[in-house]
Amino acid sequence: MSRPEEIAPPEIFYNDQEARKYTASTRVQHIQAKMTLRALEILNLDPSIPQFILDIGCGSGLSGEILTEEGHIWIGMDISLDMLATALDRDVDGDLFLADMGSGVPFRAGTFDAAISISAIQWLCNADTNTNEPKVRLARFFNTLYGSLRRGAKFVGQFYPANEEQIVQITGAAKVAGFQCGVVIDDPESKKNKKHYLVLQAGASDRPLNLGNMDVETAVPKKEHKMSKKRLKKMETKKQYIKRKKVLMKRRGKRVANDSKFTGRSRRPHF
């Protein structure tokens, strides 16, 4: 099945028909509720105090309804006008804001006690136009998100990465913005039920993240960055270049001179 972000930009893909179809699905409602409750579990908020929460990519308000049921106050932002219109028709309790998260989180510094996002942030990795550079959009999103959270506040975003490179790309941008960063994976052995949760913290907090036996710094999968062949060639010395060419010629069946201590040596210029 094609991924929605590969078909069209979110503001186009989630038109009026798709928004209503998505919202009316009992399967989608169940999954959204389950993932929102899981995000709140990881956030580990103080249950005795209502929190002011930002719901990024709130859509038609399915995740916001769970926030309301849990006693929180929330604001939702989304790029799809039709999704927000559906949320208004459903009379959700949260305030709704039309905005593109790739253009930044448009709220004052230190506004929110926490933030969540369900099935949305993978869209930031998709370059649907020539002007939408994923690296720039990710940096803008995480930098402004960090600013909008009070110090010590947390963000949990459930997302569907297309591959390991996207996980590295997203977590790398979050770390550069200043977040403590990790990824929690539920049902890692299941292809169908596997869920990724990006977990961020903006500074120290008196209530640690609920990661079980995983530490926030080590929850993100480590991946070695391999240099491209082009970059490796630029970094090689003259001697390494000659040896590489010799190996290549041998593979092609050509006769080459044996290596010696003089191979690739620098010679004095002759005048």
Automatic annotation (TrEMBL):
Domain of life: Eukaryota
GO terms of molecular function: rRNA (guanine) methyltransferase activity
One of the GO BP terms on file: rRNA (guanine-N7)-methylation
Pfam families membership: Methyltransf_11, WBS_methylT
GO cellular component, one term: cytoplasm
Domain 18S rRNA (guanine(1575)-N(7))-methyltransferase Bud23 C-terminal: residue ranges: 214-268
Keywords on record: Cytoplasm, Methyltransferase, Nucleus, S-adenosyl-L-methionine, Transferase
Protein name as annotated: 18S rRNA (Guanine1575-N7)-methyltransferase
Organism: Eeniella nana
